[in-house]
From TrEMBL:
Location of the HTH cro/C1-type domain: 10-66
Source species: Mesobacillus selenatarsenatis (strain DSM 18680 / JCM 14380 / FERM P-15431 / SF-1)
Name of the protein in question: HTH cro/C1-type domain-containing protein
Annotated GO MF terms: DNA binding
Pfam families, per the entry: HTH_26
InterPro entries registered for this protein in UniProt: Cro/C1-type_HTH, Lambda_DNA-bd_dom_sf
Length: 77
């Protein structure tokens, strides 16, 4: 059975907008370490306020550009 996971598209957003993680940290007023963990899928959750700040910093109106649900194949079978 396939498992679902929430994916944060931070690396794609950084590439699309031509900015660094450090610059996004400054623009969104979010700790660099927090953004790094999100970009590397090291965090299991994201605060709604962080989504809002990222969207404001990058002028994004569609939340699907920031987060998405992906299917992860079950590796047990």
């Amino acid at each position: 059975m396939a498992e679902k996971q929430v994916k944060i598209n931070l690396n794609k957003l950084l590439n699309d907008h031509g900015i660094s993680l450090r610059e996004l940290s400054r623009l969104a007023d979010i700790r660099h370490a927090t953004l790094s963990e999100l970009a590397n899928n090291k965090r299991k959750s994201i605060h709604f306020d962080h989504i809002k700040r990222i969207s404001e910093a990058l002028n994004i109106t569609d939340i699907r550009k920031i987060i998405e649900i992906v299917t992860i194949e079950d590796e047990q079978h």
